[in-house]
C-alpha cells in the first residue's frame, strides 16, 4: 500500500524508490531500510533475483550456469553463504541465497512485482515522480505514480543484447541468435554433432562452448575480435579471485602487480598463444574469462580458435579476417550487452550516460547535476579479484548515508574534476573497448567509497585483523567498522584462508624491511657516535 509522508514542507510518498529487485536492487533496498528510510522497490518481472532467476524464455542465466566468482567474494558483507555451498555456486544456490537474504531482512513486503517503470521525471521542487505500469503479468491496472525524494536505479547493465552488423548476414542460411536465448544444447535449435561457431570469448561464450561440446557433441569454433586472457577458477588450489588482495595493490605498483599475476598464470597454464589465443593486452587491462574446460577442449581438438568475422554467406559459409573459410550449421553470438535507461528523459539520460555503455558519473554512481537524489547501483564490473555484489553493496551503503545526511558529496566541480581524473587514468590503463567502460578493481574501488562513509578497515589498530585484511579480499572486512557494523564480520574475516604464497611473501617483505630498518638505525648510531 502506498502511503504519504511530509518532508520539509513537500508531500512525498517515499524517501527512496529502488528500480529493480535483482541482486543490486535487493541490497539497495536493504541499505535504505537499515537507515529507517521509507522505500518502495519496483520490479518489472513477477519475481526477485534479476538475471539469477532462471527462465526458459527470459533473459538471464543458462541452465548450467555457475558463478565465476567465489562465494567468499561474491556475497553481501553481513550475510554469508552457507558452508555447504561450493566455492563457485550454481545459479540455484545464488537464487536461494537471494531469497534467504530477502526473507531474513524482511525485504519482500517493500517490493512491488510486475511493475514496469515507464518514466522517472524530476519535479521543480527537486523531488522525483516515478510512473509505472502495474499488472503486466496479470491484469493491467493502468499507470500509477509515486513521488520520492531519491531514486536508486538498479536495473543492471546486461539489459540489451548486442549483435554487431556483419556483411552478408542476410544470406547466411544456418541458425543464428544471441547467447541470451541459449539455455542449453538440448534446446538450442542446433542438432547434435553439427558444426557451431561461437562469436566472442567472454564468460558466456566459453560456457556455451563447453555445453555445446559436452552435451551437444558438436564441433565448435570460437571467433573473437578481441581474444581474452583465460584464467582457471583455481590457482594453487585457491579460487582465482582470492588473489586480488589489498597487499598486492597497496605495496606494489599496479603494473608490477599485473606482472606477478600474469607470470603466475603463464607458469601454470602456459602462454595463451600455445592454445591459439592472442590477447590484445595484458591481464588486468581488460575483462578476463574464467574457464576450467576451454584449454582441455582445445587440446582434444573439439574447439578451434578462429580470427574475427569478415562476412557471412552465402549458405552456411563464414569468411574470417585472415581469408580462411568455415561452414557452420549454427552461429551463437556471445557478443555482450549494452544498457539503457529508457525511463529517464532524453536530457537527463544524456547527463548520466553520454554514449553507448558510457557513464558520466562520480564513481559510477552519482551525477554532479542531480547529486545523491539519483544513483545508479551495480553499474560496475570487477576488473580483478572480486564480484559485483560487494561493489553494489558499497555503492548502496554510500547512497543510504548520503540520503540520511550522515555524509556529503563533494561539490559538483570537485566531482567533475574527479571524474576527469578517473577517466584519464582508465583510458591510459584499460584496453579501449565498450566492454571495459565499467571496470574497477574491487578492493581499491570499495576502499575509496568505504573511506567516504567511515567503513574502510582500520587495519593498523589490530595486527591480527590487519594480517587478514591485507591478505584477503573478502567482503566482510567492510563491516568491521563504520556505519551498520556487523557483529559476525570479525569471525568471518578470521575464518578467511590466506594464500600461502602471499602469506610467506608478506613475512619475507616484513623481514627484509626489519633488516633494512635495523641497518639504518645502526648506521645512524655510528654516524652520531663519530660526530659526538
Structure summary:
It is built from 13 helices and 26 strands. It has 532 residues and is an alpha/beta fold.
Report the biggest beta sheet as strand number plus sense, adding barrel if it closes: 8 strands, mixed
Total beta strands: 26
Query: N- to C-terminal separation?
Result: 83 Å
Spans of at least 5 consecutive residues with low confidence: 1-10
Task: Give the count of helical stretches.
Answer: 13
Structural Rg: 25 Å
Structural class: alpha/beta
Strand content: 15-25%
Mean pLDDT over the residues = 90
**Overall geometry:** globular
Proportion in helices: 25-40%
List keywords for this structure.
8-stranded mixed sheet, disordered N terminus, 5-stranded parallel sheet, alpha/beta, 13 helices, 532 residues
Describe the structure.
The protein is α/β, with parallel strands linked by helices. Helix content is about 30%, strand content about 20%. The protein contains 13 helices and 26 strands. The protein has helices at about 25-35, 90-105, 205-215, 245-250, 255-270, 295-300, 345-350, 390-405, 410-430, 440-455, 465-470, 490-495, 500-530; strands at about 5, 10, 15-20, 40, 110, 115-120, 130-135, 145-155, 160, 175-180, 195-200, 220-225, 230, 235, 240, 290, 305, 310, 315-320, 325, 330-335, 335-340, 365, 370-375, 380, 440. Mean pLDDT is about 90; it is low at about 1-10.
